[in-house]
TrEMBL record:
Family classification: In the central section; belongs to the 3-hydroxyacyl-CoA dehydrogenase family.
Species of origin: Endobacterium cereale
A GO molecular-function annotation: enoyl-CoA hydratase activity
GO biological process: fatty acid beta-oxidation
Keywords: Fatty acid metabolism, Lipid degradation, Lipid metabolism, Lyase, Multifunctional enzyme, NAD, Oxidoreductase
The name this protein goes by in its record: 3-hydroxyacyl-CoA dehydrogenase
UniProt domain 3-hydroxyacyl-CoA dehydrogenase NAD binding: residue ranges: 328-507
Length: 737
């Protein structure tokens, strides 16, 4: 029998080698077709008496990335259709579909012949769960090899036996830590935890796996043996008596109870360890079905799994434009941002020229790359040779003539129109007509900057976030005259440096920064109302934000807030900024010299390490303070989420953001908007636009007109619409009202 996604070869030793190699895909993933074929392969190997055991491996550089997005999307579509037809049986149908992988893996585990998973590369999600169901696991030794059950990061949890097998192979505390954080394990760490049996050199992988079978590997899982005890003794031991009462409290501290998938992991492990294995699998299947039915799971999977992949693969790339090749990229401005952009460019294997006013300034920019490379080499992420190769791709120079053959030039100089105008003119004097010019600006409108260009159709905004080497989002901004070639080139570059792009139309602050400053401005309002600063920060984190607004303001610099406010007043008039906000920031900067983390004094104090930062005590003296009992924390949480979501709705109404996927992905990757919501527009859709409008109107009456719902929101509420319905990114139905 032949298979589309697998090959099977049986040697003279009676060991069948099953190799996973999906055609037309760079990575193996689980699809319905793959599971059908895997089921057939299992049947074939069981029925063939000549086969003594099976080695399962991959022909690709990675082992597998887990489930395919089309399968996940199909599962949700099935649930929606089944719920519409018969809500009573919808959950039962989902329960059956969700258990397909669970019971296929259990069939492998109990088939009577030994299976060994030979893991040659990164192994994630369902692929690792399949490997855990095999009787032996051998992993190739390599720094790029990672093993993980990361499902919690997209709103669900390891629901194909993962919670039960991990907690029976390693101690419960390590199992919970691994699964509730979705952390990746090196081969060595996985072996130390007892999750894999051997770590070998890549060339020996298959031979080592076969040898396990030849050495008499039992085709029985440890938990199917009589008298099996989980590592640590299960849940009724003195050690467990310390772990389990604390575990929910620790999880709540880390997640504020916002992630149903994370809590379900605790329940699955605690309940499952007290039950026979097959019953424990049914418990896991029950919780998995329950979590799949939550708004959080639907929204997170859509944004953080499906939409992120679609955007990363060029969902917004103009059709018909040839793919860009980057033989050289120029970066003008060797300050921290420009230097970091040069680093990620070189890390992608692209030669980059880093330009500044003189050689000393340019060399200082390259030193940023040298520092980052040294850190990577010291941590084993790069070899010395790889680091040297990366640095050889960065050429620091003050000579603009070196840009004459650049395919793309990125300007990353100071946020000043006149400075940028001078750079644009100098660059355009030497580059050919085919070169694309990109401005890395965080606030200045691209159309205005493009007025300084002789070729505005070749001019585009590419807004990076700091620190560039860590932040996964890049905003691509279209000026009024930006052409398809410029957009396509920008998106190709972002893909090459392995970041996720969102495309937005031009406006002051674009999308991300508009939302970020709404978040910070709401904190200013709360301070002025007398809400204690600690409550402001904690409420924001309880709402799901990764850092409080005051801490975030310190990171971006309080004096930058002052500059942006002054620029807004200069361009848009005094009503564009609340006087009390301006007064607060002026007091911090002009009177107290509290500029943020960069000078060790902002809303927080930053003592020398190892001491931790702490809120500046003087904040309570700026405004009369309310008692904590007078403040409703739930209302604070609502204010933070609603004000950001409202700003997103405004950008949609203004035509700045045209694809809801980009609003959601951009809000999570750009500034960490409560990931459990799926992003700003999913937050609105998740509660229902009508309910959101009602909440916004209530907040508007109590806390100000900036909470007033927009006309678009009111219209959508009246019509019972959603953002993903009205602005469907797949059919492009609808337009901004």
């Amino acid at each position: 029998m032949t298979y589309k996604n697998f090959t099977i070869e049986t040697g003279a030793d009676g060991i069948a080698l099953i190799t996973w190699d999906m055609p037309d895909k760079s990575m193996n993933v689980f699809t319905v077709e793959v599971m059908d074929e895997l089921e057939a392969l299992l049947k074939q190997t069981v029925e063939d008496a000549a086969i003594k055991g099976v080695v399962f491996t991959s022909a690709k550089s990675s082992f597998s990335g887990g489930a395919d997005l089309t399968m996940i999307r199909g599962m949700f579509s099935m649930l929606q259709e089944a719920t519409a037809k018969d809500p009573e049986t919808a959950k039962q149908k989902l329960f059956e579909v969700a258990g397909r992988m669970t019971w296929l893996f259990r069939a492998i585990e109990t088939n009577g012949k030994p299976w060994v998973s030979a893991i040659n590369g990164t192994c994630m999600g369902g692929a690792f769960e399949l490997s855990l169901a095999c009787h032996g696991r051998v992993v190739a030794n390599g720094k790029s090899v990672k093993l993980a059950l990361p499902e919690v990061k997209v709103g669900i949890f390891p629901g194909a036996g993962g919670t039960q097998r991990v907690s029976r192979l390693t101690d419960a505390q390590s199992a919970l830590q691994m699964m509730t954080t979705g952390q990746s394990l090196t081969p060595q760490r996985a072996k130390a935890m007892g999750l894999v049996d051997q770590v070998v050199e890549p060339a020996e992988l298959v031979n080592a796996a076969k040898q396990m079978i030849k050495d008499g590997l039992k085709p029985v899982a440890p938990w199917d043996e009589k008298g099996f005890k989980a590592p640590g003794g299960g849940v009724w031991t003195p050690a467990a008596a310390q772990l389990w009462p604390a575990a929910p409290a620790i999880l709540r501290r880390e997640t504020a109870g916002n992630y149903p998938g994370a809590l379900a992991i605790l329940k699955c492990v605690y309940e499952g360890l007290q039950l026979p294995f097959d019953t424990a699998l049914k418990v896991e299947q029950r919780y998995f079905t329950q979590v799949l039915g939550t708004t959080e799971a639907f929204s997170m999977i859509r944004s953080l799994f499906i939409s992120m992949q679609e955007l990363g693969k060029g969902a917004r790339r103009p059709a018909g434009v040839p793919k860009s090749e980057f033989k050289k990229v120029g970066v003008v401005g060797a300050g921290f941002m420009g230097a970091s952009i040069a680093y990620v460019t070189a890390a992608a294997g692209i030669p980059v020229v880093l330009i500044d006013r003189d050689q000393e300034a340019a060399d200082k920019g390259k030193a940023v790359s040298e520092k980052l490379v040294a850190e990577s080499v010291s941590k084993g992420r790069l070899t010395k040779e790889e680091g040297e190769k990366l640095l050889s791709l960065v050429t620091p120079t003050p000579d603009y003539a070196t840009l004459s053959d650049a395919d793309l030039v990125i300007e990353a100089v100071f946020e000043d129109r006149n400075v940028k105008k001078a750079v644009i003119e100098q660059v355009e004097a030497v580059i050919p007509a085919t070169t694309i010019f990109a401005s890395n600006t965080s606030t200045l409108p691209i159309s205005g900057l493009a007025e300084n260009s002789k070729r505005p159709e070749q001019f585009v905004g590419v807004h990076f976030f700091s620190p560039v080497e860590k932040m996964m989002l890049t905003e691509v901004i279209l000026g009024e005259k930006t052409g398809d070639k410029a957009l396509a080139t920008a998106l190709d570059f972002v893909a090459k440096i392995k970041k996720t792009p969102i495309v937005v139309n031009d406006t002051r602050g674009f999308f991300v920064n508009r939302c970020v400053f709404r978040y910070i401005n709401e904190a200013y309002d709360m301070l002025a109302e007398g809400v204690p600063a600690a409550m402001i920060e904690n409420a924001a984190k309880m709402a799901g934000m990764p850092v409080g607004p005051l801490s975030l303001n310190d990171e971006v610099a309080v004096d930058l807030s002052q500059k942006i406010m002054k620029a807004s007043i200069a361009d848009l008039g005094p009503n564009s900024v609340k006087p009390e906000h301006m007064a607060l920031v002026d007091q911090l900067i002009d009177v107290l010299d509290r500029r943020g983390r960069k000078n060790g004094r902002g809303f927080y104090d930053y003592p020398a390490k190892p001491a931790k930062k702490s809120l500046w005590p003087g904040l309570k003296d700026l405004y009369p303070q309310k008692k904590a009992s007078e403040v409703d924390v739930n209302v604070l949480k609502q204010r933070f989420l609603v004000t950001i979501a409202l700003e997103t709705a405004r950008t949609v109404e203004e035509g700045i953001v045209t694809d809801p996927r980009e609003a959601d992905v951009g809000s999570i990757l750009g500034f960490g908007f409560a990931p459990y919501t799926g992003g700003t527009l999913s937050y609105i859709d998740g509660m229902g636009v009508k309910a959101f409008v009602t909440l916004a109107e209530k907040l508007s009456r109590e806390y100000g007109d900036h909470f007033a719902p927009t006309s678009l929101l009111k219209d959508m509420a009246a019509k019972g619409e959603t953002f993903y319905g009205r602005f469907d990114p797949y059919t492009k139905v609808g337009a901004a009202a």
